[in-house]
Design brief:
Structural class: alpha+beta
Strand content: 25-35%
Number of helices: 4
Number of strands: 13
Oligomer: single chain
Radius of gyration: 15 Å
Largest sheet: 8 strands, mixed
Length: 179
């Protein structure tokens, strides 16, 4: 059964986010009190290009299994370290298609918009980590492992231990791309 193992938010634009006992998701905005909360884009580099773009990165989710994979490569990470709002367990987030809806806890509903694009901030956080969260598939296509992004369709409180429900979109499915 897929579940949430940690939640985090930060009002500042810092790389890592402190863990909390609960966060509140706000429909159409994101995580209440988080620097990336809002209808329009909040990521600094994207604001510089066009501050009126819709915010497709309201919630950042990472699967805890990534931390296990990175530990094998010598990186000791814990939930919140990579700036995610929600850390999951038991769900392959990277394999889900665009438009998948995740029921987080009793009320919150998040629609997946795409992949987090790992940037140089990851390298500044831990040297070598950027290369570790990027890979290549058998065809040489780039694989981004630093989590997924989504928008909040229905708000609600989310906390560790909450179950995660998954609703796939109608076929044909579209693979996740960076957002």
């Amino acid at each position: 059964m897929a579940e949430i193992i940690a939640v985090a938010r930060d009002e500042g634009h810092r790389f890592s986010k402190p863990l909390l006992p609960a966060i509140r998701l706000l429909a159409g905005l994101g995580v209440e009190g988080d620097a990336h909360c809002g209808e329009t884009v909040k990521h600094r580099s994207r604001v510089a290009v066009d501050p009126t773009q819709p915010n497709l990165r309201q919630v950042h989710l990472i699967q805890a299994e990534l931390f296990e994979e990175l530990a094998a490569g010598g990186f000791s990470l814990r939930p919140g370290d990579m700036g995610e709002n929600v850390t999951t367990l038991g769900l392959d987030l990277l394999s889900l298609p665009v438009g998948t809806r995740l029921r987080l806890g009793a009320q919150a509903l998040v629609e997946i918009t795409g992949l987090r694009n790992p940037c140089v901030q990851i390298e500044a956080f831990r040297p070598g980590l950027l290369k570790a969260v990027l890979g290549r598939d058998a065809d040489g296509k780039l694989i981004r492992k630093a989590g997924i992004m989504g928008i909040v369709l229905a708000g609600g409180e989310v906390r560790p231990g909450d179950p995660i429900g998954v609703s796939l979109p109608a076929l044909p499915h579209r693979a996740l791309e960076r957002v």
